[in-house]
Design brief:
seven-stranded antiparallel sheet; 4 helices
Amino acid sequence: MEASLKQQSEWSRAVVFDEAGTVLAKTAEIPTGEISAMTTAFNDKDTTFGNGLNVCGKNFEVHRFYEDQGLIYGRTHAVNPQDGEGICLARVKKGTTGANNFALITYDFPILSAKAVPDLQAWTKEW
């Protein structure tokens, strides 16, 4: 799984983790506390919109929250849009157990959510 993550050259960071926050694969170090917070991001839409998502000390504003599709995504705030960074958190059911796994990616301009989100969805179907 990790080798496949590393092949995704358009993602600046990627990490896959389970409901307990255990990292299953990664291309970058992300603090344990931030990963733990991601496991509850789907619990309350208003809280997630209000707080955003944090990765490596950087806050990402949440622009889209799709509970049914298991997707949350947004961007950092930047005066120049080319300086912004995107984020997508996907929740994926794990096999017959019904437990959730999560895949988190960040991506830099010129990659936008219109490209990164479908790419992540396709990647999660493989794994």
